Amino acid sequence: MTIFVKxxxxxxxxxxxxxxxxxxxxxxxxxxxxxxxxxxVSNVRTTKELHSLLKKKxxxxxxxxxxxxxxxxxxxxxxxxxxKIRFVGWxxxxxxxxxxxxxxxxxxxxxxxxxPNWKCEFLFN
Length: 125
Description:
CATH architecture of the largest domain: 2-Layer Sandwich
CATH superfamily of the largest domain: Barstar-like
Distance between the termini: 59 Å
Strand content: 5-15%
Radius of gyration: 20 Å
Strand order of the largest sheet: 1-2-3
CATH topology of the largest domain: Barnase, Chain D
CATH class of the largest domain: Alpha Beta
Number of strands: 3
């Protein structure tokens, strides 16, 4: 190994690596400090109401079409989900809108599988 290569490796270890470690630390710290977003779905009666609530609480763009295909597109590339979301009244939603609640939960869990660096903790209660 030439002295140039050794010098380059040493400079990398001394200057670049510490900044990268600090960057990772800041990301983890931000995640731990982020409060939980509460979404009360206990009064939702229709699919339209559910999509409107999600659009408002998750700050979806105006062009959100309020359907499940659009929901997936938005959460998988347009917005960053908060670190924690607690769905209050989830059991009532599952009774009133079983198909919609299943689709939504599946998409949210799929989001975490496909984007492990942008995981969101979901609490369904």
